């Protein structure tokens, strides 16, 4: 499933690579007319590289590698601009440094920007007066720090928003939206690599209505929270626990066959049976387990686990059944 961040990443790379290649055109013409062949060749190389990146991202919408390549191009173009065209072109460094923070994570952008600044400072040191050098350093270092603070805050906010959108506030398990995304991603991968396996466990708390009715909703909520903590402490970090709705949960166990998933289901069932969540509450769960069958949709996969769960309930609860 596409996120707002994915869209923004694509837009940033398209704008930067597009602006860089378009911005090269007048310089290419000037270098050609003035027959400065070395600089013309360098500009032409940068033009084709940025244009290729632009077209690649436009067609594939993939940015993981392209962001790094555009960042590297930015650094190379900034360096060559100052090195070949002289220190009167120092101001090109400012947009280049800012662009790094749109392309890379804040710490990496700060590290690369700082190393680059150090190299440029050593390079221009003998050619400028101490006053100009001091101005250059104060303004570029301020720019780096402001960009770092801004992009660090934006990244934190984006992580918090993403957690709010995908985590169930009561239990800390991931929510239905995250489950749908995860199922799409797993079934997509399994259809590309049919030799890989994955299973889902559909879990339902037994007689939960009775717990609510007897002890009140506050205790019911505490039971849900404690259930989620127990399950999360028993599954692998790569397995996800998702709240499907109410007192129904799903575990996606990747690289797990039906037999292994059934073993996991029994481990979870016993862990919950033995846990003490509240005085007088003897919590048990029923589980339905299904391994992914090549070709089926995530909806069909979950449907088979749900049918197995239904059988577990019919069998008398506190049981796990396989599809
Ligand atoms: N406290 C609390 N209760 C919830 C929450 N979400 C759903 N429930 C309750 O969960 C109960 C589910 O009841 P049922 O669907 O009858 O299932 P059950 O009592 O567990 O019975 P079986 O599934 O057949 O074992 C309902 O009473 C819901 O109100 C929640 O977030 N907090």
Architecture overview:
With about 325 residues, the protein is α+β, with helices and mostly antiparallel strands. It has 2 domains: about 5-165, no CATH class; about 175-320, 2-Layer Sandwich (Alpha-Beta Plaits), CATH 3.30.70.270. About 70% of the residues lie in helices and about 10% in strands. The protein is built from 11 helices and 5 strands, in the order H-H-H-H-H-H-H-E-H-H-E-E-H-E-H-E. The chain has helices at about 5-35, 35-60, 65-85, 95-105, 105-125, 130-165, 175-190, 210-215, 215-235, 260-275, 300-315; strands at about 200-205, 240-245, 250-255, 285-290, 320. The protein has a 5-stranded mixed β-sheet with strand order 2-3-1-4-5, with helices on both faces. The longest helix is centred in the middle third of the chain and has 37 residues, at about 130-165. About 35% of the residues are buried. Bound molecules: guanosine-5'-triphosphate (GTP). Guanosine-5'-triphosphate (GTP) binds near residues 204, 246, 247, 313 and 317. Guanosine-5'-triphosphate binds near residues 205, 207 and 247.
């Amino acid at each position: 499933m596409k996120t707002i961040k994915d869209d923004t990443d694509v837009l940033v790379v398209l704008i930067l690579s597009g602006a860089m290649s378009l911005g090269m055109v007048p310089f290419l013409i000037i270098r050609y007319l003035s027959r400065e062949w070395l600089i013309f060749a360098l500009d032409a190389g940068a033009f084709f590289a940025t244009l290729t990146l632009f077209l690649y991202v436009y067609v594939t919408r993939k940015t993981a590698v392209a962001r790094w390549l555009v960042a590297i191009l930015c650094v190379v173009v900034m360096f060559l601009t100052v090195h070949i065209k002289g220190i009167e072109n120092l101001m090109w460094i400012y947009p280049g440094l800012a662009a790094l923070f749109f392309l890379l994570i804040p710490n990496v952008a700060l590290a690369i920007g700082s190393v680059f600044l150090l190299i440029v400072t050593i390079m221009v040191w003998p050619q400028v007066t101490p006053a100009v050098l001091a101005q250059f350093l104060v303004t570029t270092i301020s720019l780096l720090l402001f960009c770092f603070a801004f992009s660090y805050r934006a990244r934190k906010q984006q992580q918090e928003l993403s957690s709010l959108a995908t985590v169930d506030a009561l239990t800390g398990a991931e929510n239905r939206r995250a489950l749908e995304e995860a199922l799409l991603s797993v079934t997509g991968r399994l259809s590309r690599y049919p030799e890989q396996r994955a299973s889902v466990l559909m879990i339902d708390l037994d007689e939960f209505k009775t717990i609510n009715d007897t002890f009140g909703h506050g205790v019911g909520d505490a039971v849900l929270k404690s259930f989620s903590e127990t399950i999360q402490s028993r599954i692998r970090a790569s397995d996800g626990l998702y709240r499907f709705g109410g007192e129904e949960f799903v575990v996606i166990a990747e690289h797990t066959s039906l037999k292994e998933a059934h073993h996991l289901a029994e481990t979870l069932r016993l862990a919950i049976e033995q846990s003490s969540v509240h005085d007088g509450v003897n919590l048990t769960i029923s589980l339905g387990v299904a391994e992914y069958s090549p070709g089926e949709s995530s909806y069909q996969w979950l449907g088979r686990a749900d049918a197995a769960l239904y059988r577990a309930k019919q069998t008398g609860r506190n049981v796990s059944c396989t599809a």
